[in-house]
Design a protein that fits this description.
The protein is of the alpha/beta class. It is 47% helix and 16% strand. Helix 3 crosses helix 16 and helix 13 runs parallel beside helix 16. The longest helix is centred in the last third of the chain and has 26 residues. It is globular, with a radius of gyration of 25 Å.
């Protein structure tokens, strides 16, 4: 089969929106697709059960409703409540900026949306240029540097804070909330007059928001996970506060959902995408997924997909309790910048990946370079050239083309990958909607913090102590934790807490103070 015939056969196009995806550059045969027929059938059946309300997160006994909720959401009271609140905030003029305090899906989706739709320099525009949309900042870690950097540019009296946590107990979000409350108190300002909570009813955050007099509490659904929450309230409120047409975004997602509900696997882009992942990686994720959008505004897409794909599919056990260690590694940045970064390895190095290239066809600006060629034509040339170069080397590629980058196309992309992840999970028989590994690290972090408390208590009780980390570990009856204790002591010394250190014989000597 020649390239033109293969391209025609394995390219799927929605002629109404102009969205197209081609699998022709992947190394698979029709026989390999036919061998997946039973998996296609199972996935189609299970997706129907999911959308009918079946428990699809058995570990947590939860439904999974992000696909269906976004159909009815635009006509709901909750949608109107967000739109009315956001319109009132933008028109009142009291707030000029909003800080989104959340982690994982509570930040990655809104960040992707803002960068893709409003662009990287949104906060530098005047309020008139922003049409009363708020500037937007993000706290998405428990790093004091990020908090300090925000304070450098934030006007506390004119800033609204969205505290987003489904359970209300997410420590990183809680840490930023507590630090921000203390900062506002130091300025004799009531944080509650500047704060909105997005959480589940009855959660720890919900109760705190009531006690602290937050301006508003918006409810999150228990059946929508963080990494699939961008089409729900988590994505809606930040978007609405900056003036983004969220209903149009949902239209794009729902249009892709309708396309990917097809039982005809060969004409279903999510089914085919999952099939490519499965065949390329031998059903075990043996190849890395490289995401390269040829668009500056989609530079955050690979970060967003890292969470969606890796947190959903990276699982130790399958649904039957068998140890399988499944997963797909995701990395990427943007083209054509990456032709001067990691593309060298993709072309000449290890053949351990498949790449997905995304082209935005409409130029944002007409910038002629000469010889009837514009800047965008060069980007297109680099896109086509790289695709051809990799194909000629036998490297595997998928190409996605969209006419432009608006909220509609962003909705299509997000919905496509959400469905492909759910389908692939059915192929490999795992639960895509829980995250036990994340919970494991949180428990380990609690142990580390408990150890820190013991070490600091020891220093307070033994102000005469001077010695190495191993000596302190022995003295504190914690001999198996000497390595961890050295890290605790190093941080304490650098931050001027209870201990100093000096080098001696290629070792640190710590002294209580």
């Amino acid at each position: 089969m020649n390239w033109q015939t293969r391209s025609q056969k394995y390219t799927l196009t929605d002629f109404e929106s102009g969205f197209s995806i081609s699998f022709a550059g992947m190394n698979f045969s029709e026989a390999e697709l036919e061998a997946l027929d039973s998996k296609f059938e199972r996935a189609a059946s299970e997706m129907k059960k999911l959308e009918a309300g079946a428990i699809k997160n058995p570990d947590e006994q939860r439904k999974v409703t992000h696909f269906t909720d976004r159909i009815s959401y635009p006509d709901s009271d909750g949608f109107r409540e967000v739109e009315e609140f956001s319109a009132a905030v933008r028109s009142a003029g009291k707030f000029d900026a909003v800080v989104v305090n959340g982690i994982g899906g509570s930040a990655l989706g809104p960040q992707l949306m803002q960068f893709a739709v409003n662009g990287p320099y949104w906060n530098e525009l005047s309020r008139e240029q922003r049409k009363n949309g708020l500037k937007i900042y993000f706290l998405d870690n428990t790093d004091s540097a990020g908090f300090a950097d925000l304070l450098e540019v934030m006007d506390p009296e004119r800033t609204l804070h969205l505290v987003i946590s489904k359970s209300g107990g997410t420590q990183e979000t809680r840490n930023n909330m507590i630090a921000m409350e203390d900062f506002y108190a130091s300025r004799n300002l009531k944080f509650g007059d500047h704060a909105v909570a997005v959480t589940m009813q009855g959660s720890q955050l919900y109760k705190h928001a009531i006690e602290a007099g937050y301006l508003k509490i918006f409810n999150m659904a228990d059946s929508v996970g963080g990494r699939t929450s961008e089409t729900a309230i988590v994505g809606h409120l930040p978007a609405a506060l900056t003036g983004i047409d969220f209903k149009r975004f949902l239209s794009g997602a729902c249009a892709m959902d309708e396309w990917t509900r097809s039982n005809d696997a060969r004409n279903n882009p999510a089914m085919m995408l999952a099939a490519m992942w499965y065949i390329a990686g031998n059903g075990r994720g043996d190849r890395n997924m490289v995401i390269v959008p040829y668009s500056d505004r989609l530079v955050l897409l690979s970060r967003y997909l890292q969470q969606l794909v890796m947190e959903s599919l990276g699982k130790e056990l399958d649904l039957d309790g068998n140890t399988v260690h499944q997963g797909l590694n995701v990395f990427g940045n943007k083209g054509g910048t990456d032709a001067h970064a990691f593309i060298q390895q993709l072309n000449d190095g290890r053949d351990d990946f498949f790449a997905t290239f995304i082209e935005v066809q409409q130029d944002a600006a007409k910038l002629p370079i000469g010889n009837n060629t514009a800047m965008g034509d060069y980007l297109h040339g680099f896109f086509e050239g790289l695709c051809a170069a990799l194909r000629n080397k036998g490297r595997q590629i998928i190409t996605i083309r969209i006419p432009q980058i608006t909220v509609f196309e962003l909705g299509q992309i997000i919905a496509l990958y959400e469905r492909a992840v759910a389908v692939y999970a059915e192929f490999i028989n795992i639960n895509a909607f829980h995250q036990p590994g994340v919970q494991a690290y949180k428990l380990a972090a609690k142990d580390a913090l408990a150890l820190r408390g013991k070490v600091l208590d020891f220093l307070v009780q033994h102000p005469e102590f001077s010695g190495t980390a191993c000596e302190l570990a022995a003295a504190a009856d914690l001999p198996d934790s000497a390595v961890e204790i050295s890290g605790i002591l190093d941080r304490a010394a650098v931050n001027g807490e209870l201990v100093t250190r000096k080098s001696c014989n290629n070792n640190w000597i710590y002294s209580a103070k």
